[in-house]
Design goal:
binds FE2/S2 (inorganic) cluster; 2 domains; Glutaredoxin; five-stranded mixed β-sheet; alpha+beta
Length: about 170
């Protein structure tokens, strides 16, 4: 798979999808969240480009600043291209005290990514296969430490769980 790069423009097909999604959510409570979820899911690299956010703002008649505040507040939204598989480790207090830091360290090592907490909260392997993310809390603290792999939540994660999931995803260093 070729390395992924940021998209610069929306295709006609993406615009049509966004138009339909905005109409479908018209007048619904939480419409903006639903619109952003669907247009992100529709994007081939599962992220919200600046063009998408501007387009939704204009077509849905919502201030762009509000759209950005929603897109940056909720961990489910991505502002960078995402890899084929997403692995997210919780860095909240409960997970931290149950070893999430060493899980993250191991994960980065296994995927040959820099183990650097000054890196952005989302980093993708150069081949575009894996995106490693961190979140502040999944709201599942009783299961600490918690990891999410491609939208599936895993609780009481240890290094064996991590290794098993990486093998399941066909990790190659
Ligand atoms: S601190 Fe990790 S799920 Fe809450």
């Amino acid at each position: 798979m070729a390395a992924i790069t940021a998209q610069s423009t929306m295709s006609q097909e993406e615009q049509t999808f966004a138009d339909r999604t905005i109409v479908a959510h018209s007048g619904m409570p939480g419409a903006l969240l639903g619109i952003l979820q669907q247009v992100q899911e529709h994007n081939s690299h599962k992220y919200l480009t600046a063009e998408i956010l501007e387009y939704v703002a204009e077509k849905a008649d919502i201030p762009l600043a509000r759209i950005y505040s929603v897109a940056t507040f909720f961990a489910q939204f991505n502002l960078d291209p995402q890899g084929e598989h997403s692995i997210c480790i919780c860095r909240g207090t409960a997970c931290h005290t149950h070893g999430s830091r060493s899980l993250l360290q191991r994960l980065r090592h296994e995927l040959a990514l820099p183990d650097d907490d000054t890196e952005p909260s989302s980093i993708t392997t150069p081949d575009g296969r894996f995106t490693v993310r961190v979140v502040a809390c999944f709201g599942q603290c009783a299961l600490a430490p918690v990891m999410e792999v491609d939208h599936a939540i895993f609780g009481h994660v240890n290094e064996q769980t991590l290794e098993r999931e990486l093998q399941h995803l066909g990790r190659k260093k």
